[in-house]
Design brief:
By secondary structure, the chain is mainly alpha-helical. It folds into two domains: 176 residues, MFS general substrate transporter like domains (Growth Hormone, Chain: A, Up-down Bundle), CATH 1.20.1250; 198 residues, Growth Hormone, Chain: A (Up-down Bundle), CATH 1.20.1250. It contains 15 helices and no strands.
């Protein structure tokens, strides 16, 4: 039986850049929680630790699209080493400041520099797009990347926390820094699969965020990210309330496993449905699958509800990325994909903050109201975006050759 995922790697160099890209994207999942764990131990303040981690996250969200814009203009090989180098310097400065008890402002300054971390998921997807543009294998490649993203956020946080607790406080962020250096170096060394650089004259028109279709997709990913952030926070609080704190890791793993499995299945399906309609269906399903979260009464029912909630996350993400590939100009693809990943990251942070506030005020189960509210936003954006995105997809597709 033909394995469509194995077929992706028939092209020389694909295995190498996927492996290097996986190593290089792990630091994004490890750094924030690693900063919190490190500073909580060395400074004894969760407030300070969270503020520094939030500075890193916000800086990354703001700078990642700008770095990707430069990548589209000058190439991965020229921009990624500089961006990763600045981020690496920031991480090392942060570790030194924490170790030698430097003033608090040095922690924040270092976190800003660390925020130059490039969006490696977008870089890897850009290579897949260059290889399989216009073929059915591109959806399979995007599905693989969605699963690898989930795998990073399954393995990254516990790895970072475990190192910082079991070895020494700086071990988690230090491991993230080393993985960033090794992963990016190995990634840019794969010159044969690097997307070509386009001429400066082709870069007119400003940022792709000015396109209404991209703004709609980013807003959709912000709302979806808020659901993820809520599930993360409330699952921990719910398990603690049930006096089974260790069960939180099981619940979160179930969410990721459901998303991964659905993404892998979706990646091999060839559905005779247009992308805008798939986005609409994915958005509707994502919104309605937040409802069972409100019915959770114990760990088992919570795990089942979370499993259901995760089933449509990866497929909807895959469709959104495929739409970006059709909507944005070829010479701005990396920037377009980075905006979506940035929107997802912002949504996760917003959902976690909002859910934390609700949990503190009204208890663990009440926190899922935030997920329900985010689901309503997903529903509204999906309904509105269906009509707004479809014309852009049609125009772009006709211009590229295939019929709409």
């Amino acid at each position: 039986m033909i394995n469509p995922y194995r077929e992706l790697f028939n092209i020389p160099g694909t295995r190498s850049f996927v492996l290097a890209g996986f190593l290089a994207r792990l630091p994004l999942a490890m750094t924030g929680i690693g900063i919190i764990t490190m500073l909580a131990q060395l400074r004894g303040s969760y407030g300070l630790a969270s503020a520094v981690a939030a500075t890193f996250a916000l800086t990354t969200a703001l700078l990642a699209p700008q770095i990707s814009l430069l990548v589209d203009r000058w190439g991965q090989g020229r921009i990624l080493p500089w961006a990763a180098g600045i981020s690496l310097a920031g991480l090392l400065a942060l570790l030194a400041s924490a170790h030698w008890q430097a003033p608090d402002w040095t922690l924040f300054a270092s976190a800003v520099l660390a925020g130059f971390m490039p969006s490696m998921p977008a870089m890897v997807r850009a290579r897949w797009t260059e290889i399989y543009r216009g073929t059915s294998r591109l959806q399979t490649a995007y599905a693989l990347e969605s699963v690898l993203d989930d795998a990073c956020f399954i393995a990254g946080p516990p790895l970072s926390v475990g190192l910082s607790v079991a070895v020494f406080p700086q071990a988690g962020p230090l491991a993230a820094a080393l993985l960033l250096a090794v992963g990016v170096f190995a990634f840019v060394a794969q010159c044969s699969t690097e997307p070509p650089v386009h001429k400066l004259s082709d870069m007119q028109g400003g940022s792709v965020i000015r396109q209404s279709g991209i703004r709609i997709l980013v807003l959709l990913l912000v709302a979806m990210g808020a659901i993820v952030g809520t599930v993360d926070v409330v699952s921990v609080a719910f398990a603690k309330q049930q006096e089974q704190p260790a069960a939180a890791s099981i619940v979160l793993s179930v969410y990721a496993i459901g998303s991964c499995a659905a993404g892998l299945l979706f990646g091999v399906l060839k559905l005779p449905v247009s992308l805008p309609r798939l986005l609409l269906l994915g958005g509707l399903a994502t919104a309605f699958t937040t409802l069972p979260l409100l019915l959770a009464s114990d760990i088992l029912s919570l795990a089942l509800a979370v499993l259901i909630a995760g089933l449509f996350f990866s497929p909807t993400m895959i469709v959104a990325m495929t739409l970006v590939e059709q909507i944005v100009p070829t010479n701005k693809l990396t920037e377009g994909m980075t905006w979506l990943i940035t929107g997802l990251s912002i949504g996760v942070a917003l959902g976690a903050v909002a859910a934390g506030q609700v949990v503190d005020a009204h208890g663990a189960r009440a926190g899922f109201v935030v997920a329900l509210a985010a689901g309503v936003v997903v529903l509204i954006v999906a309904l509105y975006g269906y009509r707004r995105v479809q014309p852009e997809v049609c125009v772009t597709t006709v211009a590229d050759g295939p019929e709409c």
